[in-house]
Amino acid sequence: MRTNDLVLISVVEALLTAENIRYFVADTHMSALEGSIGFLPRRVLAHSDDILRARRLLAEAGFAAELRPVAARG
User: Fold this and answer.
1) CA distance 61 to 40
2) Long-range Cβ contact pairs of 40-46 (< 8 A, separation 24 or more)
3) How far apart are CA 36 and CA 49, in angstroms?
């Protein structure tokens, strides 16, 4: 998931944490470089072992439209 919406990120973090799904929020410190304007989106990345569970959880919570297509694993 990639978004500038800090509330959405907080909700997603709470959902993933509640289900013990490993994740990482990338680009959280980019605001220092951009001047705290908020135009650089943050990415919520699930651990590769948890991707399917995370996607299912977020889709069931109504966030399917926010999810990006899964990249092919090679």
Assistant:
1) 25
2) 40/4, 41/2, 41/3, 41/4, 42/2, 42/3, 42/4, 42/6, 42/9, 43/1, 43/2, 44/1, 44/2, 44/3, 44/9, 44/12, 44/13, 44/16, 46/16, 46/21, 46/22
3) 33
In the predicted structure, residue 13 carries a pLDDT above the cut 80: yes
Q: Is the pTM of this model over 0.85?
A: no
pLDDT digits (tens, 9 = 90+) for 36-54: 566 678 899 999 999 999 9
Per CATH, is 2-66 categorized as 3.30.70.790? yes
